[in-house]
Amino acid sequence: MNPLISVVIPTYNRKNIVLEAIQSVLQQEPKNYEVIVVDDGSTDKTAEYIKSLKLPVRIINKENGGVASARNAGIKNARGRYIAFLDSDDIWLPGILKAQLAYLKFHPNIPLVYTDQYIQVRGRRRKKTRFSYQPPRNMFNLPGFIDKVPIHSSSVMVRKSIFEKMGSFNENLKIHEDTEMWNRISERYKLGFIDKPLAIFRWEVDPRHLLRESERKKFVQEGKKYMKLYEDRRQNRELTDEEKKAIKRSRSILERIEAKLYPTNSRSRI
Fold first, then answer.
1. Is the separation of the CB atoms in 113 and 157 below 8 Å?
2. With 0-12 CB in 10 A as exposed, 13-18 as middle and 19+ as buried, what is 169?
3. Where would I find the beta strands (DSSP E) of 18-108?
4. What are the pLDDT digits (tens) for 5-26?
5. What angle do CA 70, 72, 76 make, to 5 degrees?
6. What is the pLDDT of residues 57-109, one digit of tens each?
7. Which pLDDT does position 133 carry in this prediction?
8. Which sequence spans correspond to the domains of the chain?
9. What is 5-208's CATH topology?
């Protein structure tokens, strides 16, 4: 019998930390789920390490293509009616799958639910959660990767059928791909929120989260691509005042970040 839920964990060169993510899934009850780890072309033998542990997980190996392509590979191979995402450097708390599943069953017209989240910095969990700073939204139809607290993938469960209607993660985006996906879904559906922190976003576990200069450059470059996609989808209707303000502020912040990275002729790059 097929599992009810498929948990998709994309990973790349995280042999040293992926086990913690997997273990946080395997503690979930009831056992109505499968765990799919998508190894996105790791060079540190991540897949071999996981196989050696003989855990109840499925491992999918693919050439390196980025996190969007890894999630899409997981979706394609998922057997469950529901899909939950977990980044390989984050962890879940007990009860997340049970709470998400109950919410979606009780709200049949909502295709996506997300939970609040703890944020861990330098090994310490902050007292305020992700949505302590800004209230959650049941619509995510603004350029949210700068102005609004984004919905983080590790707190999301969706109905698998939504990808047949909305398409898959955009593999042309190396980052902001999850925000772009939630935007697309929210343009047609309301989103659900569980007001309880059931995942931990661990900022510093992977050094790439520390926004080194190369990562800041990628943030700007991919941010520009994200903004173009956002605006292109709205060409058939007039932008609201709220959207216009959010787009203007988002572009202004990208310009400021880029000006620090490229002190001369910075504005010509946006």
1. yes
2. buried
3. 33-40, 58-62, 82-85, 91-92
4. 999 999 999 999 999 999 999 9
5. 120
6. 999 999 999 999 999 999 999 999 999 999 999 999 999 999 999 999 999 99
7. 76
8. 5-208, 211-269
9. Spore Coat Polysaccharide Biosynthesis Protein SpsA; Chain A (3.90.550)
User: Bridge partners of 60?
Assistant: 38
Rounded to whole angstroms, the Cα distance separating 62 from 70 reads 8
Nearest to 166 by CA among 154, 148, 152, 183: 183
What span, in angstroms and rounded, lies between the C-alpha atoms of 179 and 206? 20
Residue type, 246: A
* pLDDT of res. 139: 72
Residue type, 139: M
Task: Encode pLDDT of 175-199 as tens digits.
Answer: 889 999 998 999 899 999 999 999 9
- Determine contact, residues 21/97, Cβ cutoff 8 Å: no
Tokens of 178: 């999850």
Residues 6+ apart with CB under 8 A from 90: 21, 154, 199, 200, 201, 202
Q: Kindly list the distances between the CA atom of residue 181 and the CA atoms of 11, 140, 199, 239, 257, in Å, as whole numbers in the listed order.
A: 19, 10, 20, 19, 24
DSSP string, 1-36: ---SEEEEEEESS-TTTHHHHHHHHHT-SS--EEEE
Give me the numbers of helices (H) and strands (E) for the chain, helices first please: 8, 9
Please tell me the pTM assigned to this model. Answer: 0.91
Q: How far is CA 256 from CA 25, 210, 265, in A?
A: 40, 19, 12
Cβ proximity of 149 and 162 under 8 Å: no
The larger pLDDT score, comparing residue 195 to residue 123, is at 195
Task: Give 91 or 151, the one with higher predicted confidence.
Answer: 91
At 247, list the tokens: 């787009």
